[in-house]
Amino acid sequence: MALLLLVVLLTAGVSPNDAQQLPDIYKKGVELALHQINARHSIKHHFLFFKTIHQAEIQAGFGVTYIYHNFYLKATTCRKGTENADTTTCEFRNDRPLIDCVICYKISAGEIGGKPYLNCMYRQVLSKESKREREIGCYQAGFGSLTPTPVAYTGS
Question: How far apart are CA 20 and CA 150, in angstroms?
């Protein structure tokens, strides 16, 4: 319970196209998600960070920070494989659905440590059940106190 009090909640204070304004500890998770999404064979256009939905962090001491970040990725006009793609060279497309991502990870000495939990899916298929699965995924990965709602996980 005391650990929950240490959670620093930062509500969607990042506007669209402001990936560069994200703190470095959040950029690392976004970069990991972008790498995995843009590497998929089914993806035809380059995706970029669009907007933060929710983010939280816990300073665990000894230089360790636990991160929870929920954000949107959005397709651009650039084809997959475009080098140095950013919002100045690739405009966002409004005819493609957003991808909703959740990532939970540990930062130690400026690097992602351990195995991060990452889940991305098209926003229109996101259901209460899939949100619950994300909470459980973060909880099982050791990040239960970072989810936006408390998780009552009983195991299976």
Answer: 30
When computed from its CA atoms, the radius of gyration of the chain, rounded to whole angstroms, is: 16
Cross-strand pairs, 19: none
Which residue, chain included where needed, has tokens 């089914």?
42
Q: Return d(Cα 24, Cα 86) in angstroms, integer.
A: 17
Q: To the nearest 10°, the Cα dihedral for 41, 43, 49, 55?
A: -70
Per-residue pLDDT of 67-124, as tens digits, reads 999 999 999 999 887 787 887 889 999 999 999 999 999 988 888 888 899 999 999 9
Give the Cα separation of 118 and 108 in Å (integer).
18
- Cα angle 47, 104, 116; round to 5: 85
Count Cβ atoms below 10 Å from residue 145 Cβ, excluding itself. Answer: 20
Q: What pTM value is reported for the model?
A: 0.78
Helix (H, G, I), strand (E, B) or coil at 88: coil
